[in-house]
Amino acid sequence: MSRRHTHFTTESGVPTAVTPGTPNTPPTPTPASAPTSTYRLQLGPEFPFAAAERAVAHLARLGVSHLHLSPVLEAVPGSAHGYDVTDHTRVRAELGGEAGLRSLAAAARARGLGLVLDIVPNHMAVPSPLRLNRPLWEVLREGPHSPCARWFDIDWEAGDGRLLLPVLTEPLDPAACTVDGDVLHLDGWEFPVRAGTAGLPLPELLAAQWYRPACWRQARTELNYRRFFTIAQLIGVRVEDPEVFAATHAKVLELVRDGVAAGLRIDHVDGLADPEGYLRRLRAAVGDGCWVVVEKILARQERLPAGWPVAGTTGYDALRQVDGVFTDPEGAAELARRYRESTGLPDGWRRTARACAEEVLTGDLAAELGRLERAAGPRLAPAVRELLIAYPVYRPYPGDGGPDPQALAEAARRAGAEAVAGVRDLVLGDPAFAARFAQTSAALRAKALEDRAFYRYAPLLSATEVGGDPGHPAVAPDAFHAYCAALERDWPATGTVLTTHDTKRSADVRARIAALSQAPGLMDGTTGAAGPDAQLVWVARQTAFGLGEVPDRADRIGQALLKAVREAALRTSWTEQDAEYEAAVAAYVPPPGELPAELAQAARANLLGMALLHLAMPGVPEVYQGAETEYRALVDPDNRRPARFPQEDLARLDAGAAPAGLPQEKLALTATLLRLRRDRPHLFRGYAALTARGPAADHCLAFARPAGLVAAATRLSLRLTRAGGWRETTLPLPPGRWTPLLPTRTPTHYEGEARLSDLLSTWPVTVLTRESSPRGA
Predict the structure, then answer these.
(1) Is-contact 617 496, C-beta < 8 A?
(2) pLDDT at residue 120 above 70?
(3) Could you tell me which residues come within 8 angstroms of residue 600 by beta carbon, excluding any fewer than 6 positions away?
(4) What is the pTM of this model?
(5) Which of 155, 195, 407, 596 has its CA 20 to 30 A from that of 558?
(6) CA 724, chain centre distance (Å)
């Protein structure tokens, strides 16, 4: 994939968009190669395959090597995301069907781009109408004797031996049921009637079915099938069964074999009974040439199991590292202090996280907990609960050597050492219990942390992100370098991200919020401010600063705040809504979002610095749709709006125009690095930290890719300015003559070392490439 070396700047110093003389013709990626970068597209009825095909030319010009598509298999009609799969054998008709997907693949291939598919092995939809999920329909009709019963993780021994279907809005009223042939009608739903029961009186007919329609509230305590997190409308699939794997993966494997897909993203791998076994079966089926990454949230000290046959994760671990180096640890601590004073919420992060885990486990996941407690027996039941609450990562894996020692010790203090030892023996000695424990642990971490504690503990909202650690929001430069070196050594083709369809705030919003860690005094205006409560006022102020002055800001912030208070579950929740409080939230007018001038410059430095590190560090960077330019988005559905592509801005930059404002600066930087990755991938091998010298050395984060690239970013720029700027600080460079790809004042080349006041005079970041040989060589 190497291409001849060309300069990436015009005479005016503006980054060019394509290699001169070879417009829009990037090299075709070979099936055996990892992408040089990916670009995520959120497909849906409003953005089908045809719309994606129209974007191919722009994305090829941008410099990406692969398009990463959200799930493409048949899903619930109207689904905006596609993770609610109903049929694994067909490409989704609403997107354009298989013909549309193959047309998109051909158009991408003609421009040198490959496709990466997002696949969902863990669950299927419990759709309306139910017959859309044919395997589930057959199980409802035929019960545990159905050939499809092996598809789903159903506990037929629980309750009265029937499958609970919590789909009704109210408790079951037999008088509201009607039977039409072999179909039962109830509350707008259709259910199959078990053979030989259609002529029975209605009460007897209902009792004779293999399922029990019920109010959705009964799922919390009575559900007897594995689901995705706490969503009863998504039923777990047993892909550990070879026949189920074959049936659910045949179409995807066909698309890989036909060259339609060159890579796969595996959704929620922690939900599977045997993730490593699944991945080995998948790898054997797709071969070594298919790039495979897993959606796996790694805790701060956690590592991906070394034996997994994948390229790495989807990149939330990298997100935390990049965000963290632009967070001031002292300012973050000061924000935490002011937050406690302003809101009156005394608990720190650890106590908040534990309280949320207790609530979710005994509330939303009571059915899953009950199943584990029954399996363990009354004596060990309290220890099961305590060990799940204490577990510090999403789930244990066999290669970890059993349950985490820290979790064992904490659980033993609360439930007794003997009982905890008994649960440990179960986890190590009973594969079925171990799998169930691990799956419940993963669901608990996701719901208790991501979907509750991250909304309840809010000193610095930029730190409350998927994969984040709000208790330790800052990352020291040395820790960042150590992470990158380990990534290059162990997982060089892993995915890295800053913004996804699941991030609660886009990277651009987080960059603005993180700047508050350098000026925590800006949050003083929340104390005593009018609003429904002090917590909401604090969250609203940071959200307003993060989003800034954008179209429809009041509505967008209002939707985000309503979701935040429901997720936090302090005054209202999704299932127990307080109408009066929610009306007050809806009526609340968000504060202004303009940042003071000096903080706006700090946000600019953060945004461009985050983009630089993401695109230059080890791994395969992914750009979220529209995020090649400034992209301000809040939590879904705000971040899943149809994509807007800055095609005209890119064309102007390609024609030699200087970047006008932050959005075009980010676009120029992104295009420069994506094209460099595409055209000269060898430059992005190896990793070496570079250390600045002088009074402001701590404000420079720099590294070299030894084959010939240097990246440097300004961190904590507001504090740098207040301390007097770069002054005599310099950056020692590796041997050779170095050319900046972004404009600087003077000089145009550097050898030995560079004054940071020159190197970072125009931009808060820089990228340099080494000429073919040092001077005099």
Answers:
(1) yes
(2) yes
(3) 594
(4) 0.93
(5) 596
(6) 38
